[in-house]
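S1.2 Input.
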Amino acid sequence: MKSHFLLAMAGSVLILLSGCSTTTSAYYNTLKLALKDRSVTYTIDEIAASKADLMQIKAGERDTASLALAYIDGDKYRWVSGDNVIFTMHHGIIVKTEGLDSDLFYTGNLQHNPLGKSDVLSYSWQRKVDVSGVGYGLPVNSSWRIEGEVTREYLGFFIPLLKIVETVSFPEYTPFIDIGLEWENTYYLHKSTKQLLASTQQFSPVGDTYDMVYLSRIVREMTEQGAVK
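S1.3 Output.
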């Protein structure tokens, strides 16, 4: 029997950069201020007061850094770092990057993204990707499963979550690489609201693994539950 769950996207601040240049400039200045000298942590008060949604990210063995939500284009969310690296997310999945050593240029078949479904988790997803230095039109297959309920601590709060696991199979795009072509990505949704609060993702066998925590979403969840005043 298929497992069912509702995906409620957050009421994130909608940033429209199509307005006047003064407004755009002011917003980017806000982003730079929010990200300035931030390599590890924010306080809950700082997160709640931020005009832009904030995300914590750890790439491989590098130090923890921060991303801020720059703008939303339909169901694509663009997050920017203090050094101008941009991650485009589609319902929480990395579908494009700008500024990395090996960028993800394109991800296809987004209409079948399992996390984009309103009430049913698809068990598979086939798409093609373009990755810098790796190849173009590479077929990627993934299988999905709901692993169960877990509790994890974020910002000092213990939060009940639904853990979803994606097993990714990457094509043998070169005769010199025959290992590391399959891995697991994990997604953690709030047990009740089914909003994505954290994930661990890799989009290329030659790239880093990215641990992402949606700080602003967590603070909003805790505020609604009365844990934050």
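S1.4 Remarks. The radius of gyration is 18 Å.
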